[in-house]
């Protein structure tokens, strides 16, 4: 008779093998790898044989991060529409007004937030 826990034995063996391989390769690279002095030339990025013109990692303006966060915020809010659309037909028979009203309220709050951001010019890249 096969128990449920014995069915996980191959998965645990694979996990152990993966961990052994990962940490084994890290340890092997430390043992075999040469340790040399690091110079600024060695640490500089290689751009097809051309010396870098400017420092890597130029800073972006605060406006970029603000628009990025707002995009993520509105994207996550739109994701909440998907489960509602999936159960809408099933709940329509029992609670038609409740489900439709809750979604209108949700969209209303989202739209008011969007209007606030437009009024505050949060989406303008130039300013």
Can you tell me the overall shape? flat
Strand content: under 5%
* Spans of at least 5 consecutive residues with low confidence: none
Instruction: Provide the helix percentage.
Output: 55-70%
The helix tally amounts to 6
Number of DSSP-assigned strands? 0
Supply the number of structural domains.
Answer: 2
Summing up helix and strand content along with how strands pair, one would put the structural category as mainly alpha
Q: Termini, distance in Å? A: 71 Å
Average pLDDT, all residues = 82
Radius of gyration: 28 Å
Biggest sheet record: none
Q: What is the H/E order?
A: HHHHHH
Describe this protein's structure.
This protein has 127 residues and is mostly helical. The chain folds into 2 domains: 4-43; 62-119. It has helices spanning 4-7, 9-32, 40-43, 62-79, 81-92, 96-119. The chain is flat. The model has no long low-confidence stretch (mean pLDDT 82).
Layout of SSEs?
Elements: H1 4-7, H2 9-32, H3 40-43, H4 62-79, H5 81-92, H6 96-119
Helix pairs in contact: 5-6
Give keywords.
flat; 127 residues; mainly alpha
Kindly summarize this structure in a few lines.
The protein has 127 residues and is mostly helical. The chain has helices at residues 4-7, 9-32, 40-43, 62-79, 81-92, 96-119. The chain folds into two domains: 4-43; 62-119.
């Amino acid at each position: 008779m096969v128990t449920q826990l014995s069915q996980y034995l191959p998965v645990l063996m694979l996990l152990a093998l993966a961990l052994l391989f990962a940490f084994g390769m890290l340890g092997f690279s430390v043992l075999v790898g040469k340790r040399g002095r690091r110079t600024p030339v060695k640490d500089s990025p290689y751009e097809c044989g051309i010396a870098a013109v400017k420092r890597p990692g130029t800073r972006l303006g605060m406006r970029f991060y603000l628009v990025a966060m707002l995009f993520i915020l509105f994207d996550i809010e739109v994701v909440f529409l998907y489960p509602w659309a999936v159960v809408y037909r099933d709940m329509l028979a029992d609670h038609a007004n409740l489900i439709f009203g809750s979604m209108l309220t949700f969209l209303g709050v989202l739209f008011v937030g969007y209007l606030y951001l437009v009024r505050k010019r949060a989406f303008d890249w130039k300013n």
